Amino acid sequence: MRKARNEKENAIREKLIDELYGNKYNQFIGFEILELSSTYSKSRIKCDERLHNSYGSIHGGALLSFVDAMAGATGSMSGRYVTTVSANLNFLLPAVNTEYIYCECMKLKTGKHILVFDIRVTDDSGNLLDSGEFSFFASKVNVLEDNLKIGQ
Q1: What is the pLDDT of residue 112?
Q2: Structure pTM?
Q3: Is 82 helix (H, G, I), strand (E, B) or coil?
Q4: SS3 state of residue 141
Q5: With respect to CATH, is domain 7-142 assigned 3.10.129.10?
C-alpha cells in the first residue's frame, strides 16, 4: 500500500481498514484492501464458491456489495463518512476462471456534498468484468473524532 500523505490521512485509513476488516459481512466475502486513499482504491475478493450464483460465477449481489463497501471507504477517506446515493454496475462478463476479483475505484468528482467514483472490476488477467459509477453523500460525521490529536 502506498504511503499516506500525512498523519491524519494515515489515521483515517487505519480506522477505515479496521472497520472494514471488522465487519462480519466483509469477512464473509473475503475482503482484502490493497490500496486506499481519497482518490483511488484497489481491493480484491477470492472467488469462493460460497459467493457463486446458480450458474457458477460470482453472484452480482456479492459483487455489488463488495464494490459499494470499497467505494464507500474511498469516499470516507475525505474525512467524513459517506452514504450511497446511487450505484450503477454494468455486468459485462461473468466472474469465472479466476482466483480473485479486483475492484478499482477512481474519484471523478468531489462536490460540496456529493462524491462520484468510476468503478472497474477485473479478473486475474486484467479482463474488465464490470464497470460502473457510484455516487455518495458526504455526511457531517467525521471519521476521526474532532478532538483526536494526531501524533499522540
Answers
A1: 87
A2: 0.88
A3: strand
A4: strand
A5: yes
Q: Answer yes or no: is pLDDT of 24 > 70.
A: yes
Tell me the CA end-to-end span of the chain in Å, nearest whole number. 23
Return all residues near 95 (Cβ < 8 A) that are at least 6 apart: 47, 57, 58, 63, 101, 121, 123, 129
Question: Shortest CA distance to 13 belongs to which of 31, 40, 38?
Answer: 38
The Cα–Cα gap between 64 and 146 comes to: 32
For the chain, the domains span 7-142
- Contacts of residue 20, defined as CB under 8 A and 6 or more positions apart, other chains included, come to 26, 31, 33, 69, 73
pLDDT band with cut points at 50, 70 and 90 for residue 125 = very high
Instruction: Return the residue matching grid coordinates 480506522.
Output: 15
Q: What is the pLDDT of residue 4?
A: 65
